[in-house]
Description:
about 40% helix
Amino acid sequence: xxxxxxxxxxxxxxxxxxxxxxxxxxxxxxxxxxxxxxxxxxxxxxxxxxxxxxxxxxxxxxxxxxxxxxxxxxxxxxxxxxxxxxxxxxxxxxxxxxxxxxxxxxxxxxxxxxxxxxxxxxxxxxxxxxxxxxxxxxxxxxxxxxxxxxxxxxxxxxxxxxxxxxxxxxxxxxxxxxxxxxxxxxxxxxxxxxxxxxxxxxxxxxxxxxxxxxxxxxxxxxxxxxxxxxxxxxxxxxxxxxxxxxxxxxxxxxxxxxxxxxxxxxxxxxxxxxxxxxxxxxxxxxxxxxxxxxxxxxxxxxxxxxxxxxxxxxxxxxxxxxxxxxxxxxxxxxxxxxxxxxxxxxxxxxxxxxxxxxxxxxxxxxxxxxxxxxxxxxxxxxxxxxxxxxxxxxxxxxxxxxxxxxxxxxxxxxxxxxxxxxxxxxxxxx
Length: 430
């Protein structure tokens, strides 16, 4: 058993999905038919198969077993009948509830957050992504250590053979593990602070060069990666599955002949995204607060697109990026009647798969970001050669010719143009 024992590697887990719909739970905490369907999709993404499900209606959760002892016994019988080896709750469970339920039903119990963390662990490819997921896992697992050790003890008590060092560990072993995990959390937090420092340096360089940043955000599987590929030819995998992209991809995109931007894909959001992941991925997601424009990609073919869009808007606000300008991009319009979707200056309907509507999106981005950029020719005297350095820092220099003066063709913002207007060559102005 590993530290993050969850979905079995190389095996197909037979899982029963359980949800509690309770009036005393918030809309974010409760389970519904729609969220249970999404949980089944998450299980499939993780490599498991759903053999049964149970959605219980109850006034409020049971403090110990969450669903109540009677329902827990019913779940135990269902586990035996369907030969399930895993139970996954759509709701968030406390460490105590996980331990109690695991003892009652006789197989491993995990909640939605644990399942999402498992998927992230399998999908993260870059060093940064792996650091972020590992940190989230340790933060999630720390309060659940007792339950995990109890799982090992039960295996031994039932006649199985446990590895040396796991036979009935006591409080000493638990405390050793807690200290071990806290040390790892401290190290990972330090590593991610370094990631943030490097990102800050890169961001400062971009701002000096005045290269606008456009960030793709949206619900998982809304089509962000497909849109990035359509716009830039990035060639990144874009499959029809949840959380297909975890690692940020950034590409250059030429909007007009005077406007080039950096377009970044980001991890998809989802209902009930574990707070440990939000915290761990802030090194990546903080880029949203520094972006010049957000493209909120919405899967218009999904019946629940309004609810999904609301989840994304809520998480954007939680990350402090609610003031960032945005364009709502209604994707998969080839599968949905466009006329009933919202319209307006900051709303675009398109199909990232076919390319329909992409030109309209480029025009919308240009309206937001062009900011009066102009291509001009500047004639700079040799004794003012330092101005060329300024242009390299603050404009997009396209050509430099050395004649009687230094002739520079560059795309400049109004601010830079105002500073260097005295050196404009009117006959060469673009």
